[in-house]
Design brief:
- By secondary structure, the protein is α/β, with parallel strands linked by helices.
- It has 2 domains: 7-64; 71-285, Rossmann fold (3-Layer(aba) Sandwich).
- The protein is built from 13 helices and 7 strands.
- A 7-stranded mixed beta sheet has the order 1-7-6-5-2-3-4, sandwiched between helices.
- Helix 8 (161-172) links the parallel strand 2 and strand 3.
- 45% of the residues are buried.
């Protein structure tokens, strides 16, 4: 998905909110925001929004020396959802269709996104969303693909959300490779987060190598790319991964909440809608 002009204010908001988490003066903040503006101006608009966001966070890290400004929020999200894990696990077990329920919870978990949303009460919003329905729901395609799958790649997104991913992977009941970010990017999950949440108990956990807020393929490791290019079933979590990968030809299932007008318009849905979409870009071309 290409960047459009409506993305620019969002980039600047994200940069400003990131700098608010770092102990710097107002004058230093202005210098960094100017550098961020210059970085944005140098990236072609035919790149995805995460590609541009990656350049923004590289500027912030290089000028502040702070590699993980969202560390506190990331740890809190993991803690909160881990405390809900047993309750959610029981909810799935009691459901008429446990795979359906695990998928729905995985999509609900995508609300934990500090790139798209400034702040939220995690506990309240998760509980309010527990009965939300999908707007796009390619469930039959998902089940058919999963039945045939021999190699499954699961591309994760945010901290906290990865606990929901763990629940879904347990319900998939097949070997899964779970890919996380190579370096901190907003509140996205890294290897440390995945291991802290026990994802290694249910999947082979690898780093994608990407240092941006998505699996940006030209920044990914050879290990990840080899798996991405050979997997016969790919699950992509989160809006950023959708923005980066939705124009690919691989068989990808996208699970996320549409959290900005540009993405919602691209899909023909409303902001806040939950999505399980198979090769959405192909459908939009028909």
């Amino acid at each position: 998905m290409k960047t459009n002009t409506s993305c620019i204010p969002c980039f600047l908001r994200q940069a400003n909110e990131t700098l608010d988490r770092i102990n710097i003066s107002e004058s230093e903040k202005k210098v960094i925001l100017k550098a961020v503006n210059e970085a944005i101006s140098k990236v072609p608009f035919d790149k995805s929004p995460p590609h541009i966001a990656r350049e923004i966070y590289k500027v912030i890290t290089s000028l502040t020396g702070v590699a993980d400004p969202y560390k506190k929020e990331k740890d809190h999200a993991n803690k909160v959802v881990l405390e809900l894990y047993s309750e959610l696990k029981e909810r799935i077990a009691k459901a008429d269709d446990p795979l359906f329920e695990a998928l729905r919870l995985a999509a609900i978990g995508n609300i934990i996104d500090l790139g798209a949303k400034s702040s939220f009460n995690l506990e309240d919003e998760l509980r309010e969303d527990l009965n939300t329905k999908f707007k796009i729901f390619d469930f039959e395609d998902f089940k058919k693909g999963l039945d045939k799958a021999q190699s499954i790649l699961y591309i994760s997104d945010n901290t906290g959300e990865i606990v929901f991913d763990k629940l879904l992977i347990e319900e998939i009941k097949k070997p899964v490779v779970l890919a996380v970010r190579g370096k901190p990017a907003i509140n996205d999950a890294t290897l440390e987060d995945a291991l802290d949440c026990g994802l290694d108990e249910v999947a082979k956990v690898i780093s994608s190598g990407s240092d941006g807020p998505a699996a940006i393929l030209d920044s990914c490791s050879k290990e990840f790319l080899d798996i991405f290019n050979t997997a016969d079933f790919i699950i992509s979590k989160g809006q950023g991964n959708f923005e980066e990968l939705c124009d690919r030809d691989e068989d990808i299932f996208f699970i996320f909440k549409a959290k900005c007008p540009a993405v919602a318009e691209h899909l023909g849905v409303d902001v806040g809608d939950m999505i399980l979409s198979y090769k959405t870009h192909k459908k939009n071309e028909n």
